[in-house]
Specification:
mainly alpha; two-stranded antiparallel ribbon; 4 helices; 62% helix; flat
Length: 133
């Protein structure tokens, strides 16, 4: 998708927040995007601290609310700071991110699996200390 820019009126087409202008004419727009991302990230962080101590949410629902806010904050970081959009030029970036998530998931999942199996197959500590006397 190509983007047109009207130099007389200073307005461009509707673009995603993470889209960058490579011709150098969108410096103010880039700074505005970074500031918007900063405000959204700070707002989500403040909301998570507030909801963790707030009586507005059922105590057992706090982890779900914090998870939702964390996923939202990851989205803000991906779009506003890493400039990950759905444009055709970002296909390699999306694939690299998906591969990184896969590798991290495999490492964490494998570590938990190995630790669980080691704990399950280990002899109880009472048998390892020897006879008490």
């Amino acid at each position: 998708m190509t983007e047109t820019f009207d130099h007389e009126h200073g307005s461009g087409e509707d673009t995603a927040p993470g889209d960058e202008r490579l011709d150098g004419s969108g410096v103010a727009q880039g700074i505005r995007g970074y500031l918007m991302g900063l405000l959204l990230a700070a707002g989500l962080t403040a909301a998570s601290f507030y909801l963790a101590q707030s009586p507005w949410i059922w105590p057992h629902g706090v982890p779900a609310a914090l998870t939702a806010l964390a996923i939202g904050q990851m989205g803000v970081h991906l779009v506003f700071f890493l400039h990950l959009t759905t444009g055709p030029d970002n296909t390699n970036n999306v694939l690299a991110l998906a591969f990184g998530v896969l590798i991290v998931g495999l490492i964490i999942g494998g570590t938990v699996w190995i630790m669980y199996n080691m704990n399950h197959n280990m002899a109880p500590m009472a048998h390892m200390t020897g006879p008490s006397g």
